[in-house]
Automatic annotation (TrEMBL):
HEAT repeats lie at residues 366-404, 523-561. InterPro entries: ARM-like (IPR011989), ARM-type_fold (IPR016024), CIK-Related_Protein (IPR051177), HEAT_type_2 (IPR021133), Kinase-like_dom_sf (IPR011009), Prot_kinase_dom (IPR000719). The gene is LOC111310040. SUPFAM superfamilies: ARM repeat, Protein kinase-like (PK-like). This is Probable inactive serine/threonine-protein kinase scy1 isoform X1. Residues 660-673 have a biased composition (Basic and acidic residues). The keyword Protease does not apply. Keywords: Kinase, Transferase. It comes from Durio zibethinus (Durian). Residues 605-620, 698-709 have a biased composition (Low complexity).
Amino acid sequence: MFKFLKGVVGGSGTGLKDLPYNIGDPYPSAWGSWSHFRGTTKDDGSPVSIFSLSGSNPQDGHLAAGRNGVKRLRTVRHPNILSFLHSTEVEAIDGSSTKVTIYIVTEPVMPLSEKIKELGLEGAQRDEYYAWGLHQIAKAVSFLNNDCKLVHGNVCLASVVVTQTLDWKLHAFDVLSEYDGTNGTATGPMLQYEWLVGSQYKPMELAKSDWATIRKSPPWAIDSWGLGCLIYEIFSGMKLGKTEELRNTASIPKSLLPDYQRLLSSMPSRRLNTSKLIENSEYFQNKLVDTIHFMEILSLKDSVEKDTFFRKLPNLAEQLPRQIVLKKLLPLLASALEFGSAAAPALTALLKMGSWLSVEEFTLKVLPTIVKLFASNDRAVRVALLQHIDQYGESLSAQVVDEQVYPHVATGFADTSAFLRELTLKSMLILAPKLSQRTMSGSLLKYLSKLQVDEEPAIRTNTTILLGNIASYLNEGTRKRVLINAFTVRALRDTFSPARAAGVMALCATSSYYDMTEIATRILPNIVVLTIDPDSDVRSKAFQAVDQFLQIVKQYNEKSNAGDSAGTGSLGISSMPGNASLLGWAMSSLTLKGKASDQAPLTAANSVTSAATTTSTASSGLIETPSTAPVHRVSSSTDFADQPMPPSPTSTDGWGEIENGIHEEQDSDKDGWDDIEPLEETKPSPALANIQAAQKRPVSQPVSQPKPQATTSVRPKSTVKVTKDEDDDLWGSIAVPPPKSASKPLNVKTAGAVNDDDDPWAAIAAPPPTTKAKPLSAGRGRGAKPAAPKLGAQRMNRTSSSGM
């Protein structure tokens, strides 16, 4: 038979060329005279099963029965009956004889006997799987007998096949006929092709061809007997040889034994209806059957039932047969999540089941569902996705993250829920390395610039930590523009002490990206201020950072003295403290959750878990520094306004008045850290400082940026940007404060003597003459000198009269 099929595939047959399927290798067993082959579609290569039946005589009884089976399989549809796809009949001339072959193409299945050997289940797991399979076949038989009034006629092990999802399905419909017990005049055989049924599977009345008794029996009598034969074969592990073997019940489970005996009753009228078997049998009440049944009718359950079920499912899945969970439950769960019938807790169960798959299977079966879920508007689903992103984030490709995942995740940056904003921020630790430079610079950094002035202290802290982590993924130009500005201008000035500590640690961790000029003029001056911070943890980290950067400068100086100019641009310090353990530092910090609602140091210190002071990067191994002590110290009556500390980024440093929002700037290439001016490299002389101060005095206040509140900080270097092309710059209103000694006398003088309406150059006008102005006011008759003012007055009057 197989040789003949190979010849047909090779082109000897004329009709098979139109079959849109490829015939593969055969299975070792099949029902009756049929042969069962693996197959694939010619279009996309998807798997199918192909059944074939051949005969040399077109009028052969086997072919007639086969045609009956094709007709019945095409018209009878049920979830537990084999799905029909295609059929054809081919005639091939072999010498002087003609061979006719019938082909049936169905969904991909394999014989039950082969699948049982492949699974190799034992004990309770085997019984649970058999219970599930028998439950499915019983539903199929009940559908035929009770709903369709049809008789299958040969239910047995060979007539059951198993799908790729391990579902049992009934096929072999060659003998299937209508039940005509209500027809009192019928005298012929009710089953036209009953001779195809093996004698060991025939009940007594069928073996005797007692059609009168059969017609008086209920419709399920013959198939209930067949179901009993199937139960015996699967539990005994042997094919039924003769009817007497059915009396051997040693292998039948005790909970199923009473129903087994009623199925095989010698009196047809007393045989158990398969529908009653499904409803009443204790054997079918087990965890696997209940779980799959719940999943199949999930849309009918209310939200409370769903939530309870999915919370128990992860632990329940560990107790079920692993292959059934992966091949049956996992697809059901993925489909339920994808189409919205499953609750958010189902994602936990999906990921747990997915962890039992190989990397390739996880990518094929789980990731597509997860990617689709990112587009969900359900906030609970979004939270669940972000909470478990560490379990699947590494499996996402860079293209999928950049094009499909990130656009949906980014909406969480501006969410009204602080918890969701923080989860979105933390997810970037895994997603950012997979983003393109365009997305990172054009979108991500804009959101991070917003989050650095978020109302939640923990979010501000974690933003600084995240920037320290993703610094290596930024290009050199972006790093130079963003890092120092973000860490010194914002993080080191934050009123929340863990945020300041995070800024110090981030500077240390990214120290290899700064050149000597930046370290000496911008980093060290800002860190030194924190050595007198009111928080002891910040002070200790500041001292460590000062030591680290001073060591870098000393190394640079030693190389310069030795004539080594190779490293004058930047000094790589991969061996310096703070770089060796960056990932560990960031991970331990990001896993702490802060949920404070008040940005004041008093409330923030008590309500927010420190997200940045848990670990220290002062050495190559992490130094654990408890954050509770400094937090309690901050929560005392210390007033930050009395400290020599720049104002908070959320209060008076100008970051609260960012004009252009994130959405209005999507077409801009700026990322929020542009145009922050560095500290002056040289200290101006007093005279030059006076001139510069007058030049910088605004004649009128810009409309787009309100005047900041009064602070104790002096900022003579601040420059107000009012040019239209730079109006979208989020960072233009901030300047780094210079040393106070140079600007203090100037500010005192300016504040007391100059108003907004006065001459802006009065502060640098030439000093008045030492003599008094008495001659000018005493008299006007001293020659030509008094005449000058008089003439001037006449000239002014003349000008006014001319209408100028």
